[in-house]
Amino acid sequence: MFAAMIGLLLFLWGMAVPLSAAPAPIGPAAEQFADGARITVGLTLIAGVAGVLIGVLAGLGKLSSFWPLRWLCDSYVWLIRGTPLLLQILFVWLAFPEIMPEGIELSDFACAAIALSLNIGAYNTECVRAGILAVPHGQVEAARALGLTPFQTFMDVILPQSMRVALPALANNLASLVKDSSLAYAISVVELTMVGYRIQAESYQPIPVFITIAAIYLILTTAFTTLTAALEARLDVGQKR
Amino acid sequence: MNSDAVLRPIIEARKVGKRFGAFHALKDVSATFYEGQVTAIVGPSGSGKSTFLRTLNRLETHDSGDIVVDGTVLNDNLKNLDTIRREVGMVFQSFNLFSHLTILRNVALAPMRVRKMTRAAAEAKAMNLLERVGLKSQAAKYPVQLSGGQQQRVAIARALAMDPKVLLFDEPTSALDPEMVNEVLAVMRELAYSGITMLVVTHEMGFAREVADRIIFFDEGVILEDTTPESFFAHPDHERAKAFLSQVRHGF
Ligand SMILES: Nc1ncnc2c1ncn2[C@@H]1O[C@H](COP(=O)(O)OP(=O)(O)O)[C@@H](O)[C@H]1O
Ligand SMILES: [Mg+2]
Predict the structure, then answer these.
(1) Is B45 close to ligand 1, i.e. is its CB under 6 Å away?
(2) Which chain B residues are closer than 8 Å to A144 by Cβ?
């Protein structure tokens, strides 16, 4: 797990070095490729972490016995899953400045991160909910009978056990996020796809440029998949086989 | 139980009632349980034994009547509930060990979270308890790696880790293969002689007769007999109890 993470970081920071040895149009633009990849990974990591938090909170909310909360979480998932991600990104970018209090300004990057977090959060909500429902009720009763509070029961018993069930689906969502983050180009965030678009426009050589971009995406998705697979293996203890 | 000692009530149930929808599962059940007493609760399936046991630590809420545990009234007051759950341990038919934690962590979790013990202290205590139930060598394993009998002994150790005053057992051997029943009963027998208060829902009549100080016979949501094992097994007062006994004896 840590090997995959360190590999990813080394790749990001060291990428410009080998790339700069490549012939034009790749070599001269090596720094731009590296910057673009860092933005893509930044968006993925921020939205990935925020998306899990949102997924856990909204997944719990969907199971709440308090109907307004349940209704709120249901509507959130319905709204996000029923509209295009591009629209959501544009909405945050154009509408948030109007509803934010004076003096608070969001960067384009922050807008993209918020929209992506809300998007993946909605998809995660369903996975987390299914995971929580898969925890046998006897586990909760045992924890409560021992005197654990509802919060301790959730943190120590329900959450780890539901994550074991939800993780493969959450990992899937994360892998999609690496690619979905490319839509941030629409609000002028210079992520990887945008970098490729610009460089091919300057060099008139789309084929080598897009092959390079595709290769970088493949390395990133593979790194994230390795990371989540290692996490799955760690959580997979004590399971029936 | 030493009958010369002054009996101190530890659980008092007064006219406890419970409905599931239209179904009347407990009908004005009253009983007082005394410190150090081992009570076997028997009766046909569906008669309300589990429901009664589960109202005593509020895994089930009662609709009417009062339950007082060691002077604390069991109601919606969360503080009272915390106090009571700390003093009342429970062992379930299906063990309910935490499947994602090792045996050691299963036993150490509640002392760490509820009693705020350090991890080292809680694990040392857990080791002692695992030794007591004969499972010290299994501490690093996960529940699925253990047999049913071993899992139930771990569950008993886990309940004991909170130093409860009362232990509730809901058919602790009913989910076990026959060859594993005795290892669990042996641990329970040892506990009974150590002086802890026990309420045991069981179909093991041999165990009830040998270990219990008192037998409560449930039928259709009421306590039909509340007596000593000697008198219950020799001459039950009610036809229903006679029928029940002849039925379980067929299994012997
Ligand atoms: N959660 C529940 N919802 C509805 N009915 C229940 C529930 N729990 C128990 N019952 C019913 O209450 C009756 C008593 O159940 P229980 O206390 O489990 O009996 P016992 O343990 O003596 O076999 C049964 O008829 C059972 O079907
Ligand atoms: Mg039962």
Answers:
(1) yes
(2) 59, 85
**Tens of pLDDT, residues A138-164:** 999 999 999 999 999 999 999 999 998
* Angular region, B89: left φ>0, alpha ψ -120 to 50, beta rest: beta
CB atoms inside a 10 Å sphere around CB A5 = 14
Q: Do B101 and A238 touch (CB under 8 A)?
A: yes
State the burial class of residue B4 (Cβ atoms within 10 Å of its Cβ: 0-12, 13-18, 19+). Answer: exposed
- Cβ–ligand 1 contact at B25 (below 6 Å): yes
Question: What is the pTM for the complete model shown?
Answer: 0.87
Distance of CA B7 to the CA centre of its chain: 20
Residue B175's nearest CA partner among B150, B154, B198, B148 is B148
Q: Tell me, what's the pLDDT at A28?
A: 82
Burial of B127 (0-12, 13-18, 19+ CB in 10 A): middle
What are the distances in angstroms from CA A78 to CA A82, A113, A119, A130? 6, 20, 11, 16
Closest CA to B165 of B69, B78, B72, B49: B69
Q: In a 10 Å sphere around its CB, with 0-12 CB exposed, 13-18 middle and 19+ buried, how is residue B137 labelled?
A: exposed
- Between CA A37 and CA A33 the distance in angstroms is 6
Question: Whats the size of chain A, residue-wise?
Answer: 241
User: Which residue pairs, CB below 8 angstroms and at least 24 apart, start in A184-188?
Assistant: A184/A39, A184/A43, A184/A89, A184/A108, A184/A109, A184/A112, A184/A116, A186/A86, A186/A89, A186/A90, A187/A89, A187/A90, A187/A93, A187/A108, A187/A111, A187/A112, A188/A108
When pLDDT is cut at 50, 70 and 90, the band that residue A241 belongs to is very low
Interface predicted TM-score of the whole assembly (ipTM), two decimals: 0.91
CA distance A144 to A137: 11
Q: Residue A231: list chain B partners with CB under 8 A.
A: none
| Rounded Cα–Cα distance for residues A234 and A164 (Å) | 9
How far does the CA of residue A24 sit from the closest CA of chain B (Å)?
A: 54
